[in-house]
Amino acid sequence: MKQLAYSDINEQQLIDCRSQHDFQGGHLKQSLNLTASNFKKYATYYLDVDQPLVFIVGSKEEAELDNLSDSADDLGFNQVSGYIHVEDIPAEALETLGTTAPKDFLSKEDDYILLDVRHPDEITRPAPKKNLINIPFEDLITDYCSLDSEKVIYTLCGSGGRSTAAASFLKAKGLNPHVIEGGMKAVQELTD
Asked: Is the pLDDT score of 24 beyond 90?
């Protein structure tokens, strides 16, 4: 796969393959956080197979590029432009994704949306009921319009991976998402 320069990025679909924490700390606007472990499962929900892709990686993810390329081929993405190292992106081009500690979230009094992106079949630890909306991550692409764009949206999943991916999508759509750090696992530790 070809390594690109930051100046090579124009209208391609940007897939940031780094961990949720690295993505939250700084990513390119409009990039979607899909890691090598969930790219194959969710890419066709969120990406247009007929549009070029650029993978954004850190040094830890560079070893996954062959697997990502194979997954893209398997899914019918035949326009992979290449990849760029996040270290080659100017710091001023990066933006952060808001996160909230579970303790801070649980003490919220204001109006918000709690968006649980887990599939109902996998929910073994129920989310807090206040302002709860459940839209599985794979359905968010079609159902996000039902969310109130005036409210802060706190995304939640099991441990934080899909909620970060969901927040990256919602932010690209102009909403105001915040990831609950550690997901439902961390919330449950505080409520037990």
From this structure: yes
